Amino acid sequence: MNEFILYFKMGLYHVLDFVAYDHILFLIVLAVIFSFHQFKKVVWLVTLFTIGHSVTLALSAYGILSVKMDLIEFLIPLTICVTGIVNVVTAKKSTSGKENTNLILGLVFGCIHGLGFSNYFKMMIGKEEDKLLPLLEFALGIEAAQVIIVLAVLILGNILHYFFNVTKRDWVMVCSSIVIGFSLQMMFNRIFW
């Protein structure tokens, strides 16, 4: 039970770490286009991101996949920026269909973000024979933290809409633009060529 709590907390803190805020930024920009009545899609978004993240962590932990970390560290803010740009470009259009794009982005970019954490995860589990159980426990922590972030985004969006008459379009545009600004700075700091 102690190991479960250890790996669960590590997954939780991996996402909620405000020093390494790239994960939070990515979740914000993915979730900002959704609202509470789309809760099923939001759950799918979080789950698909976790699946992508976990698959690449597992492939890396078992030595099947190895990617240059400089490239991954650059690709992480790039994924955040691309998602934000998609939101801004499509903010004026109807939201139907955009959610599906963000679901796909969540899965694909979850794979990239998982690779970014793979070295730390390998050090964390060491030479343990059983890597699957710690990976699942860690993934549950990630899932719980992502639900917290996404719920915060949805709640804030609803408060702004219902109490301050902020339109969905404006919420998506402003929030995505702020995240794009942060991600561009991160990209410039991580240029590897």
Question: Could you walk me through the main structural features you see in this protein, from its secondary elements to its overall organization?
Answer:
By secondary structure, the chain is mainly α. The chain has one domain: Growth Hormone, Chain: A. It contains seven helices and no strands. The N and C termini lie far apart (45 Å). The relative contact order is 0.22. The model has no long low-confidence stretch (mean pLDDT 88).
Quick recap:
The protein has 193 residues and is mainly alpha-helical.
Main traits of this protein?
mainly alpha, 193 residues, Growth Hormone, Chain: A
The helical percent reads: over 70%
Q: What name is given to the CATH topology?
A: Growth Hormone, Chain: A
- Secondary-structure class: mainly alpha
How would the global form be characterised?
A: globular
Helix count, DSSP H or I runs of 4 or more residues = 7
Corresponding CATH architecture: Up-down Bundle
- The unreliable regions are none
Terminal-residue CA separation? 45 Å
- Topology order in helix (H) and strand (E) letters: HHHHHHH
Tell me the name of the CATH class: Mainly Alpha
Topology of helices and strands:
Elements: H1 2-16, H2 22-31, H3 39-61, H4 69-90, H5 98-125, H6 132-164, H7 168-189
